[in-house]
């Protein structure tokens, strides 16, 4: 694709965003219902396109160029995926409007009011994997929050994506929201061109590999919100309860090992190496988890190894690189450290600032851990797997941010809004700053308890 | 400077930040008081270094390489600058702690609580002009908000900056906050190296020219918070009151023309060209403001031009580029448009999304303007010059952001914090996600009204 196309797409998105600013939020909810109906009406042709994607993908799987997992994700007709995709639209429609809320209001002077009010960001560029239902999910979140979006799914789902985007436009055409509010693009070349257009695009949200995210960050001035890695840890403190340790470590590792919030590192306080660690290790080995151990943690479980025999194949000495590896599998790297302080240092250097958990009965140590660990989530006696937008109560999530700016951790609709300041003078001759200063008027800065801007209609 | 140095500086800053996470916020306030005393104790040597900077600068001014304005800004002993710099430290110390506040709290399950709590961002890299007092101002804000900072002032102030940074470290050394919490660097080469170190530096705040900001955005993966331009507009609506129009337009233009929140464009609704515009133009001309006019606005004030004679020299036809120019001077670009809709479109294409104001008596039109104009500040019958951290009631400001992500408009201490999620299970055997799901436990997601995390000490 030429960069001319990208320019047109981006400008159309910005225009659509700006036009839609005056449309009431009830119309955005109506648009979601219309989109759901348009998708239902086009179900046959969408699934036909999906079958074409699947056929092409099956060929690639046979040729050894694609994994069977990727193939499964492509299938929009698998199980209840179609229905839950449509239900997801209604769920998003029912969430509270993230725009319009006032987070700061102040009377600067008599008849001069200032409001900080939540508003959409603008144009989002979202890049994601070959999972066609994500097109609908992200489009719903964008519309609900008042943002225009340009969507790029994995190329293996291009035919399905095109048909989904067509149905979304058809739904939008029944409302006053511009049809080009949601656009789908197909190629990496288009993404590269779009990344240069910071005059039109306000936020890039890449979902995918660490290398995808870094590559995007290196090639754009546009802010990027995403997560590079999910390298989470559990620390078993000297004051740990053994039952909690077993349950939380096990759940953090085995509930869904391929998830970014699964744990990859287990840190043991040296005081628990002979006490809590052996039963935790036994539970992990029973669940077929491979343990990469440093010498002290390995020594402490040597007595477990002879019986049953498969334990031996599951335990091996760790290489230093083990503690910087996102295994995404039934593998856990184990290290013994002398204190909560050294555990915090270790986590801050090796974890990806995603989510880290401590097992402790000491409130003082829990407090030190939660303050000292520089991650989006710091948990006490709870599985790292809780780090998720749905579990946090956001209804859904755009993704998980391991950045620190704007939004951190699971990002719900709140992460898709920013704010602007609105100020109104009701004074008979308006307000000017020249009236204030030494020997003149002074600012009142009196807190106003407003939840919405009173003069917005 | 070698990149080795930059690496050491950045790593030291990150270490200092992480060590300081466990230090109570009262110690940060104490540090500000200690820094104030250390500066007072070193006043003589700091002013001596400042004299050296001034002598070098005077030489450059004589050689025609530097403006006299820049020279004035360098002088730390001018008027009450020294005293107000020290008072500024106390002002920042007295502001409310921006960290620790809970913005979201939810009971996910019995005995499982989630808190979203404000916390520092990490390591800031702040690049600013040759105004030595800014070193102290930014250091105060960074310390108060719990962030470590690396500061780079304009090279003309290097000698003063070095001595100020020395005194700041001396102040910190009397507290438990690491001395390397605040570091000053001297060269652009060091900045370039630091911009590559996204593993250590979390936010870059450039204060300066548009080209400085763009250049930094092009050369780093680290998020950048800054403002590129200050191209503000005033729109005189058809429902405008003439007194308000005169006062607000005049104040927006002449109160401080070199400020980023001064207005550069004046947009006239075509209905006011023969009514409100001539007296507004007269007031501007009386204040010696040069008007760059489109044909309709020029025609409407032609009758003013013959007398007094200097009016004629102040009015000229506008070039198209006039409406994209930040004059920073007593110059105003004037254009006539047919509606509030076209005014909004014009502002969204030509303004820098900083601050724009409407003069109108219509609440409906004010609402349309404030929603439709995509700027950090949208004002009604008030001067654009109100867009300022002090006037907004933030006590002080780090800068003004024309970006949309994280912080927008005047950025106070709130803009220097992010948040993290803390979760605690008080259940007898901890909490795991495997307990939840179809046929199992369901999430409660019950709102908790907490203002602080109860288990933090």
From TrEMBL, chains A, B:
Catalyzes the NADPH dependent reduction of L-gamma-glutamyl 5-phosphate into L-glutamate 5-semialdehyde and phosphate. The product spontaneously undergoes cyclization to form 1-pyrroline-5-carboxylate. It comes from the Eukaryota. The keyword Ribosomal protein does not apply. The keyword Cell cycle does not apply. One of its GO terms (molecular function) is NADP binding. Transmembrane segments: none annotated. Pathway: Amino-acid biosynthesis; L-proline biosynthesis; L-glutamate 5-semialdehyde from L-glutamate: step 2/2. One of its GO terms (biological process) is amino acid biosynthetic process. Coiled coil: none annotated. Keywords: Amino-acid biosynthesis, NADP, Oxidoreductase, Proline biosynthesis. Residues 6-284 form the Aldehyde dehydrogenase domain. This is glutamate-5-semialdehyde dehydrogenase. It catalyses: L-glutamate 5-semialdehyde + phosphate + NADP(+) = L-glutamyl 5-phosphate + NADPH + H(+). Belongs to the gamma-glutamyl phosphate reductase family. It holds the Pfam family Aldedh. Its EC number is 1.2.1.41. The lineage of its organism: Eukaryota, Fungi, Dikarya, Basidiomycota, Agaricomycotina.
């Amino acid at each position: 694709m030429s960069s001319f196309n990208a320019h047109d797409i981006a400008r159309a998105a910005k225009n659509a965003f700006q036009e839609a600013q005056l449309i009431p939020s009830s119309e955005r909810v109506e648009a979601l219902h219309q989109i759901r109906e348009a998708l239902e009406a086009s179900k046959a042709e969408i699934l036909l396109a999906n079958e074409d994607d699947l056929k092409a993908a099956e060929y690639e799987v046979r040729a050894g160029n694609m994994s069977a997992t990727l193939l499964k994700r492509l299938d929009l007709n698998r199980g209840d995926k179609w229905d839950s995709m449509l239900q997801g639209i209604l769920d998003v429609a029912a969430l509270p409007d993230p725009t319009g809320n006032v987070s700061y209001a102040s009377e600067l002077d008599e008849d001069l009011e200032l409001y900080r009010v939540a508003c959409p960001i603008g144009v989002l560029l979202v890049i994601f994997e070959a999972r066609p239902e994500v097109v609908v999910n992200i489009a719903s979140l964008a519309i609900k929050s008042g943002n225009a979006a340009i969507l790029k799914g994995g190329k293996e789902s291009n035919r399905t994506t095109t048909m989904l985007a067509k149905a979304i436009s058809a739904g939008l055409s029944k409302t006053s929201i511009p049809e080009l509010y949601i656009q789908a693009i197909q190629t990496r070349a288009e993404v590269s061109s779009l990344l240069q257009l910071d005059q039109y695009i306000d936020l890039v949200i890449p979902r995918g590999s660490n290398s995808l995210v870094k590559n995007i960050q290196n090639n754009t001035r546009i802010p990027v919100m995403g997560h590079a890695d999910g390298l989470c840890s559990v620390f078993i403190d000297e004051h740990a309860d053994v039952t909690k340790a077993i349950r939380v470590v096990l759940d953090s590792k085995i509930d869904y090992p391929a998830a970014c919030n699964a744990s990859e590192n287990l840190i043991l306080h040296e005081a628990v190496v002979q006490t809590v660690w052996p039963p935790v290790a036994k539970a992990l080995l029973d669940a077929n988890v491979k343990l990469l151990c440093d010498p002290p943690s390995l020594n402490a479980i040597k007595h477990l190894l002879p019986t049953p025999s498969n334990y031996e194949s599951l335990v091996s000495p760790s290489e230093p690189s083990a503690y910087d590896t996102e295994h995404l599998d039934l593998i856990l790297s184990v290290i013994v450290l002398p204190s909560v302080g050294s555990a915090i240092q270790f986590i801050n250097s090796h974890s990806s600032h995603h989510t880290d958990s401590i097992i402790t009965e000491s409130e003082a140590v829990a407090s030190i851990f939660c303050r000292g660990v520089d991650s989006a989530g710091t948990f006490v006696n709870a599985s790292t797997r809780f780090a998720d937008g749905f579990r946090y109560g956001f209804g859904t999530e755009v993704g998980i941010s391991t950045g620190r700016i704007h939004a951190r951790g699971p990002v719900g609709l709140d992460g898709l809004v920013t704010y602007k300041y609105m100020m109104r003078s009701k004074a008979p001759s308006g307000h000017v700053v020249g009236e204030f200063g030494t020997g003149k008027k002074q600012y009142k800065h009196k807190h106003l308890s407003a939840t919405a801007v009173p003069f917005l209609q």
